[in-house]
Design goal:
The structure is a homodimer. Chain A is an alpha/beta fold. Chain A has twelve helices and eight strands. In chain A, strands 1-2-3-4-5-6-7-8 form an eight-stranded parallel beta barrel, surrounded by five helices. In chain A, strand 2, helix 3 and strand 3 form a beta-alpha-beta unit. In chain A, helix 4 packs across helix 5, helix 10 runs antiparallel to helix 11 and helix 11 runs parallel beside helix 12. The longest helix of chain A is centred in the C-terminal third of the chain and has 23 residues. Chain A starts with 8 loop residues before the first helix and ends with a helix. Chains A and B meet through helix 8 and helix 10 of A and helix 8 and helix 10 of B.
């Protein structure tokens, strides 16, 4: 469970042996007035108060218009910078927090300034590259890693890992090891619905580390309920694999939210057992894929039930 | 649970709404002396006595040398005819029994005689076609179905369903419906290790029946522990899909039997929930893939634990 003390970023990663619980949020849109952003932050913290989280994740959402030829099911709204949202509105949150950085959006100078100034005892970051090779970027992911590695005092950094990429390439576990060698202290997965695909990646990564004499880093596994066909369509757009039978159940069900919720809870149980058996440090991260109230509330309930599974 | 009375073949299929439990055996080799075959039968029944089975399955094993270009990991031994083994040695078994018939081995006249003479109140049969198109056969599967359909008094027949075939063709559920239209009253799966592949097939079959206004037939799902690398190799030879992470676990484990046993039990629980949720009549069939004592004993223990899950 969450430590009594608020805990430092490094202590958070150490406690991943037992399994962490995180919750992922997206900042409000860029045009939100400061007072309204405070209200959003307060409402979020109030919802999460009873969940005993080990940490919060704040995403940095990019338009990713190059991701797919299909149009984005939910139109992209430019969002407040996650670091700004944390600094200006989330002062009520005193535990560790993982701030995403879509590095292509920032100049090297901006990134360096933020990485240097940030409270490295409490803030971790996940550096994310472009969604496609064709995206114009200000800083490339490899340059961001190099920049981070050269700093004297630096926050722990994480990398993204994607089980769906492993299905095709069979090399995502090697990519994780390379990121680790470039400085990654942990990983966060894309939303997982295909349990075998994510277990394949975790297994290949854990045994690769063992065979190479490396210490496996904590892998944070993301789960999110799906309350509507539009959310399911958005998941496809994001490249999330959903087993065919489950897609059918969600499509045919009168209550896809409950179906997907139950499946996420089952998957959480299976992943907790799997990581413990494998001796892989891990965490579960819960999020809502949309800002729909029913999905947000279901995600908070899911996090609360997963806390019980982790005990 | 098993009915107090021994039950008829038709009653067996009716009770599949709640989930049946079967156990699959292979007859002793053709060269076994009658006295020794009696001993084998008695030992089998003694082992199974405490399991509360609803029925027994007796396989009809063919060489299947056309199945794969790879050599068979366990050399093929011609086996006693399953119907002969039942008649001559298994008189101690009074509940329903499913006798497999590899129809290619028999002439139409032989098949007709057996189908006519068999105790159709207690014996069900599964008609199996050739493993490949190149195999020389005496009777083709479609002719066997036609022959069966023309009989006045006939045993319930089942067909084989293979989730692995569905992965490639996406049409195994339609093939099941065609077999059903040709007279199949139930289906028996190949050994299942890939839970999503079998759930994809069950889901597609159940919804196809619903959409076409047909009543779905019971599907008997086969599980078998795997106690050694050689058994795992045999499973590959048989075309059984094993998720990559599980193959790694079995390969790296000091105790693959326990690993695979635990996985079979987990899969049984998941399949029972899945079929019940889907409203699909079903059964679980447990077998040992080899005649190794530890695998046979594990399979009997597994059946006993699955009985608890079914209650």
């Amino acid at each position: 469970m969450a430590s009594g003390a608020d805990g430092s970023a490094l202590e958070l990663l150490r406690r991943a042996e037992d399994g962490l619980l995180l919750y992922g949020i997206t900042p409000p849109s860029l045009t939100t007035a400061p007072g309204r952003a405070d209200d959003v932050a307060q409402a979020t913290l109030a919802r999460l108060e009873s969940v005993e989280l080990d940490g919060l994740i704040i995403y940095d959402v990019d338009a990713e218009s190059d991701r797919s030829a299909e149009s984005r099911p939910f139109p992209f709204m430019p969002m407040m910078d996650p670091a700004d949202f944390l600094d200006r509105h989330l002062s009520g949150w005193t535990r560790p927090v993982v701030v995403y950085r879509a590095v292509g959006k920032y100049t090297e100078a901006d990134l360096r300034r933020w990485l240097t100034d940030v409270d490295a005892d409490r803030v971790l970051t996940v550096l994310v590259g472009a969604a496609s090779r064709h995206q114009a970027v200000q800083t490339r992911l490899t340059d961001a890693y190099r920049l981070h590695a050269g700093l004297d005092r630096r926050p722990p950094i994480g990398g993204v890992c994607i089980a769906e990429r492993h299905v095709g390439s069979g090399a995502e576990h090697r990519r994780m090891l390379s990121k680790q060698e470039a400085g990654c202290d942990f990983f966060v997965s894309q939303v997982c619905y295909d349990l075998d695909h994510i277990r394949d990646l975790l297994s290949d990564y854990a045994y690769l580390c063992r065979d190479e004499g490396m210490v496996a880093r904590p892998v944070i596994l993301t789960l999110a309920p799906c309350g509507s066909m539009k959310t399911l369509e958005f998941m496809s757009w994001l490249g999330i694999d959903v087993p065919r039978w489950l897609r059918t159940e969600l499509t045919r069900s009168r209550d896809p939210l409950t179906e997907s919720y139950d499946q996420c809870l089952t998957n959480a149980g299976a992943l907790i057992s799997f990581c413990r058996r494998l001796g892989l440090p891990f965490g579960i991260n819960v999020e809502s894929l949309t800002n729909r109230k029913v999905e947000i509330e279901a995600s908070v309930d899911l996090a609360r039930e997963i806390r019980e599974l982790l005990h």
